[in-house]
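Protocol step 4 of 6: structure prediction from sequence.
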Amino acid sequence: MIDLVKLDEHRELFGFFAGQLVYPDKETFDLIRESGEDVLPPAIMTPVTRYREQMLALSMEEIEELYVDTFDFEKSSTLYMTYSKYEDSKDRGQLLTSLKAVYEMFGLEMEDRELPDFLPLMLEFLYAADWLNHPHGETGMLTVITILEDGTFQLMKSLESKDNPYYELVKALRETFKLCLSQEVKIHESV
């Protein structure tokens, strides 16, 4: 089970990950450079450091190209967390509707231009929404984290097979989820 207090303690990290997984711009590049290792938990520091080193070796143009090639042209590494498992099935539609309802329950109004399972949006929700003391916080977060855990596992495996720098970032994100567990639960492990 996810411990909501631990999840809340890592809000800043979810904001960082959200910022790194949107289309890159100069601000994103500056955040890569500035991400301080002193604030990162040890389990996350190593993959974030590797990610940072790989990205800082690239120009801004190369980072933009990498992002588009990775997330826009590869179905296996999509940032839509339910797509890999459900593609365009009815089940995916139902999950998207449930996810949108969770966002709305916590005060987030969805714009029609983005699907609710877009990874940066989901992480921004974890960063910004007031779910900690909400009466339906546990249920809502279970929905969000379950979708994130499943989707990021598929994404991580795809990125790993391509030796893509974003692999390290997604690995660090998944390590952050592990830090938020209240008890031992079986989750997808990297092989």
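Step 5 (inspection) to follow. The mean pLDDT is 88.
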